[in-house]
Specification:
With 235 residues, the chain is of the alpha/beta class. It is globular and about 55 Å long. The chain is built from 10 helices and 8 strands. Strands 7-6-5-4-3-2-1-8 form an 8-stranded parallel beta sheet. Bound molecules: pyridoxal-5'-phosphate (PLP).
C-alpha cells in the first residue's frame, strides 16, 4: 500500500466512524447516511486511491465532473456546486444527483435538458436557511410559495429532497440551527396536502461538511458532503 492509500484509508475510516457514532447516539441506522466524498480539491491519484474503498463522489464544477466521471466505472457522481444554466447538459449527463438546484429557472432548464438527453438525475433543492446574502438557494418561505409550481414541474420520484450549507464557523454546534431548520422545512413541505397528492416524500436531506457533519447526522442528514477531512495529510 502506498502512503496515499494508507492516509486515505485512515481518513475514510475515521469519517465513517464519526458518522456511525453520531447515528448510534440517537439510535439511527448508519446505513441511512450516504457519504458523498467531495473530490473538488483532490488530485487524480487521491481519487483513484479512494475509489478502491468508496464509490460515491461529489464535484462542485460541472467541467471537472464531466472529466472525471467517465474515468471511474460503477461509481456514483453528484454535482454539489452552483450550476450555471449553460453547463446544464454536462451536469445532467454525468450526475446521478444534483444537490444545487437554487432557482425555478434552473429547475425548468434541468428538467428540459433531462428530457432531451433521456436522463433523470435526482434533484435536491438548495435552501438558504441562514439567509446569508452571499449564499444561493431558495429562501424557506419562497420554497413554500413555489411548491405547487415545483410539484407540477418535477416528477415526484425525481425530487429527492433538500440541501443546505451552514455558515462557516469553527464551532460545529453553530451549524445546528440551520440543519434543524432544513429538517423542519422538509417536514412542513411533506405534510402539505399537495405533496401527499403527488406522492412526494423528499427522502433526502443533504447537509454537513468536514467541519460539521456529525451535527448534521444528528439532525437527520441522509447525505453528508465531506471533502477536506478525507484528504487531510496529503499534498
Ligand atoms: C467543497 C464543498 C463541500 C465539502 O467541503 P469540505 O469542508 O472540504 O468537507 C461540501 N459541499 C459543497 C457545496 C462544497 O462546495
Amino acid at each position: 500500500m502506498s502512503d496515499i492509500d494508507q492516509i486515505v484509508r485512515e481518513n475514510l475510516n475515521a469519517v465513517r466512524e464519526e458518522i456511525e457514532n453520531s447515528c448510534t447516539a440517537i439510535s439511527r441506522d448508519p446505513s441511512e447516511v450516504k457519504l458523498v466524498a467531495v473530490t473538488k480539491y483532490a488530485k487524480p491519484e487521491w481519487v483513484r486511491s479512494l475509489y478502491r474503498l468508496h464509490r460515491v463522489f461529489g464535484e462542485n464544477r460541472p467541467q471537472q465532473l464531466a472529466e472525471r466521471a467517465p474515468q471511474f466505472d460503477n461509481a456514483e457522481w453528484h454535482l454539489i456546486g452552483q450550476l450555471q444554466r449553460n453547463k446544464t447538459r454536462s451536469a445532467v449527463s454525468h450526475a446521478s444527483v444534483i444537490h444545487s438546484i437554487d432557482s425555478l429557472r434552473l429547475l425548468r432548464r434541468v428538467i428540459q435538458v433531462g428530457s432531451d438527453l433521456q436522463k433523470k438525475p435526482v434533484l435536491l433543492l438548495q435552501v438558504n436557511v441562514t439567509g446569508e446574502a452571499t449564499k444561493s438557494g431558495f429562501a424557506p418561505d419562497e420554497l413554500e410559495s413555489l411548491w405547487p409550481e415545483i410539484l407540477a414541474l418535477v416528477p415526484a420520484n425525481q425530487l429527492g429532497g433538500l440541501m443546505t450549507m451552514a455558515a462557516a464557523s469553527d464551532d460545529p454546534e453553530s451549524a445546528r440551527p440551520a440543519f434543524a431548520g432544513l429538517r423542519i422545512l422538509r417536514e412542513q413541505l411533506v405534510s402539505n396536502p399537495l405533496s401527499v397528492e403527488h406522492g412526494c416524500q423528499l427522502p433526502e436531506l443533504s447537509m454537513g461538511m468536514s467541519g460539521d457533519f456529525p451535527v448534521a447526522v444528528a439532525e437527520g442528514a441522509t447525505m453528508v458532503r465531506v471533502g477536506s477531512r478525507l484528504f487531510e495529510g496529503l499534498e
